[in-house]
Amino acid sequence: MSVDVAWAQAWIRSSAQVLSEHRAELNTLDREIGDGDHGENMDRGFQAVLPKLDAVPDAATPGELLKTLAATLISTVGGAAGPLYGTAYLKAAAAVSGAAELDGPAVVALLSAGRDGIVLRGKAESGDKTMVDAWTPAVDAAIEAEAAGAGPGLILAAAADAAEAGAVATEPWVARKGRASYLGERAIGHRDPGAQSTALILRCAADAAAQS
């Protein structure tokens, strides 16, 4: 089994819908420990890419779609999220460049490159209470699932499960990066908004694969 450009289209479109539906929730999470606009920014960026998807040729690859998404997010999303997510999708696109279909190892490479792009750009590590705390468990779970012989759908499902658990796990932590780090112990009890948006996005990837 593999996933292709139809999956990438469905993933991006589903992400746009889900992020719009959760815009207020993400804003609330961000308001508690940040600027309060994470949901608004993510919604704006993903809505901006939708018209561009309509113009993508049928022969496009998943990497080409992700590269289009990356450029759009970098140019339209404010705050830290635009550069971080933009870099994630750009690195993910490069990892699968030229491939029309993605098998299990390619999906792992995509997820790993996305996480590594965020770490490179944001200089955050696991435990800093950032989106890395959803991405790293997702990548670890994807690697484990692929090693066990799982295909793209199960790999993405495992990654989404781990990302959701990782986002929840940020709640009792003190933030060590970003605006939330200025709050010290006042950040305890609040989920990181970037980790939550990551969990939503990776669940969309898994659902798109399950429906393809």
UniProtKB/TrEMBL annotation:
Q: Name one GO molecular function term.
A: glycerone kinase activity
**What GO cellular component is one of the record's annotations?**
cytosol
Q: Where in the sequence is the signal peptide annotated?
A: none
- GO biological process: any one? glycerol catabolic process
Q: Which UniProt keywords apply?
A: Kinase, Transferase
Q: Which stretches make up the DhaL domain?
A: 6-207
Which PROSITE patterns does the entry link to?
DHAL
InterPro entries cross-referenced by the UniProt entry: DhaK_L_YcgS, DhaL_dom, DhaL_dom_sf, Dihydroxyacetone_Kinase
Pfam name, any one? Dak2
Q: Which NCBIfam families match?
A: dha_L_ycgS (TIGR02365)
Q: What is this protein called?
A: Dihydroxyacetone kinase subunit L
Q: Which organism is it from?
A: Cryobacterium lactosi
